[in-house]
Design brief:
Layout: H1 14-27, E1 33-34, H2 46-57, H3 70-83, E2 93-96, H4 98-110, E3 116-121, H5 126-133, E4 137-142, H6 143-149, H7 151-158, E5 163-169, H8 181-194, E6 197-201, E7 226-231, H9 233-236, E8 244-247, H10 252-263, H11 269-278, H12 283-306, E9 319-320, H13 331-342, E10 344-345, E11 347-348, E12 360-363, H14 368-382
Parallel strand pairs: 1-10, 3-4, 3-5, 5-6, 6-7
Antiparallel strand pairs: 2-8, 7-8, 9-12, 11-12
Helix pairs in contact: 2-11, 3-11, 4-5, 4-10, 6-7, 7-8, 12-14
């Protein structure tokens, strides 16, 4: 007896092991300064929680269409038209069980066994395994090198006759890098020239501090060759609610609908009504949260650089990605030392791809007090 061979190269993330270690330390009564997470620092807003309560009271608990309830898909389409400058209709929108489900469905819809997928690195840890599960091959494109040498030249260098698609994430996790409009245009031009599909991950679209967020599907000629994945988790502090959505034209939308139908048959109905309320959140409220993140970013990045942990200023998302070479050249060992000696929990950079080695990921989606206390412990450890 054996499992399906397509899972042979698919593993589990180190992040789970780190979370378990943090829980062990806390259970033993030891303080931990938790910079390892990927969740917003604030709670789900009350208006969103009230919306799910209303849905329950109104008995909106039966099966919904597997593609999503019409009011939510309509709200998403309006948001995409006004905020992302995308020419879409309700028929181009599919509600998913979080952004991860949208990405999973996109890879399954776009990739065949033996295809190559260009993947900017470092990357969010599940992406490589999601590609591998399709029996396609992830081909790594180092982000820093690509931005220095030009994205077109780098994509040309790493593409093969089997290249089928590009994974395009902006703002990026873990580095916080934000691709510029001109870089998005380079990716678009390359995709059109090579007749490639672009799978765009815009989970952190509302957390851009330097520059602008550009949806690659909004560029000329890209809507028909782009599948874009979104989540409500980061903007609205709805990580545990598991709501996201995918955006695509045909023939991809029919494929995505099949995958959602036969994997989850849709998203919890009351949760979708809460998502309708979330999308009604004024942009002014989102801007206030963004400023709070910016202040946390500046506090943490300044502190890390003062301690000699060289750290670029992240343009987006809510992560800092400093070098920890002065602690240990092996990022797993460096992260273990930070947790054991300073009780500062981070994620080793190598889990985000080989290009992350030598760094660790800090999340600044924590309280300012946690940042101050964590920096104090780091100072003691490093001096």
């Amino acid at each position: 007896m054996r499992i399906a061979s397509r899972l042979d190269e698919v593993g589990f993330s180190d992040i789970v092991q780190i979370r378990n270690k943090v829980l062990e330390l806390r259970a033993a009564g030891q303080p931990v300064y938790a910079f390892h997470g990927g969740e917003p620092f604030f709670d789900t807003p009350q208006a969103i929680k009230d919306a799910v309560t209303r849905a329950l009271a109104d008995n909106l608990t039966r099966y919904a269409p597997s593609s999503g309830i019409p009011p939510l898909r309509e709200a998403i389409a309006r948001k995409l038209q006004t905020k992302n400058d995308m020419h879409v209709t309700v028929d181009d929108v599919l509600v998913t069980v979080g952004g991860a489900h949208a990405l999973y469905a996109a890879f399954q819809a776009a990739l065949n066994p033996g295809d190559d997928m260009l993947l900017f690195s470092p990357y969010w840890t599940p992406i490589r395994d999601m590609v591998t599960m399709t029996q396609a091959r992830p081909v790594i494109v180092p982000t820093t090198t690509a931005r220095r040498n030009g994205l077109t030249a780098s994509l040309e260098h790493y593409s093969t006759p089997a290249t089928r698609a590009i994974y395009y994430n902006t703002p990026q996790n873990p580095s916080g890098a934000v691709f510029t409009r001109s870089e998005a245009e380079e990716v678009a031009a390359f995709a059109k020239k090579r007749d490639l599909i672009v799978i765009a991950d815009e989970a952190y679209e509302d957390l851009v501090y330097e520059g602008e967020h550009v949806s690659v599907a909004s560029l000329p000629g890209m809507a028909e060759r782009t599948i874009t994945a979104y989540t409500l988790s980061k903007t609205y502090a709805m990580t545990g609610w598991r709501v996201g959505y995918a955006v695509a034209h045909e023939p991809f939308m029919t494929a995505l609908r099949k995958i959602v139908l036969y994997s989850t048959n849709g998203v919890s109905t009351p949760t979708q009504w809460a998502a309708v309320q979330a999308l009604a959140t004024p942009e002014s409220e989102i801007a206030v949260r963004r400023q709070e993140y910016r202040l946390r970013r500046d506090k943490l990045v300044t502190g890390l650089n003062e301690l000699g942990l060289e750290c670029p200023v992240s343009a987006g998302a809510f992560y800092a990605f400093p070098s920890v070479a002065k602690i240990h050249k092996d990022s797993r060992r460096a992260a273990a030392l930070l947790l054991e000696k300073a009780h500062v929990a981070t994620i080793p950079g190598v889990v985000f791809g080989a290009q992350g080695e030598g760094c660790v990921r800090f999340s600044y989606s924590v309280s300012p007090e946690t940042i101050d206390a964590g920096l104090d412990e780091l100072r003691k450890f490093l001096t």
